[in-house]
Amino acid sequence: QVQLVESGGGLVQAGGSLRLSCAVSGRILNLSGMGWYRQAPGKQRELLASITSGGMTNYADSVKGRFTISGDNALRTVHLQMNDLKVEDTAVYYCAADITYYDYTGTPVSEKNHWGQGTQVTVSS
Predict the structure, then answer these.
(1) How many Å is the Cα radius of gyration of the chain?
(2) For residue range 78-111, what is the model confidence (pLDDT) as tens digits?
(3) Can you tell me the distance from the alpha carbon of 55 to that of 72, in angstroms, rounded to the nearest whole number?
(4) Mean pLDDT to the nearest integer, 56-83
């Protein structure tokens, strides 16, 4: 199977920085891209940043210029550098993989978003 594990969340004051990390492991056939999402209480999960296997990146307007996504060439480790954090950035942050992998029967399974467990980011004033 495939596992995504996020780390790096915590409590930070407004204007501060955090760096989130996501490690991907498992029986992977193809990893086309990775994304960082967040979900605040009562709100939809939203895409913040993505990176493709070719290195192209994209950002939501709400974080453009403040957040940077990066990863190794195989996207087995990805990061989200978050600068100038605001109170409204408080949420659970998730990484997700656009991935094809072998399940336990040996059958290829394709998922646009295979999710990690999430890591809490709390920004205080």
Answers:
(1) 15
(2) 999 999 999 999 999 999 999 999 998 999 999 9
(3) 9
(4) 95
Rounded CA gap, 43 and 68, in Å? 23
Instruction: In whole angstroms, give the CA distance from residue 21 to residue 116.
Output: 11
Beta bridge partners of 3: 25
- Contact between 125 and 88 under an 8 Å Cβ cutoff? The reply is no
The token duo for 41 is 């209480």
Q: In 88-121, which positions are buried (b, 16+ CB within 10 angstroms) versus exposed (e)?
A: ebbbbbbbbbbbbbeeeeeeeeeeebbebebbeb
Strands 28-39 and 2-7: unpaired
Amino acid at 56: M
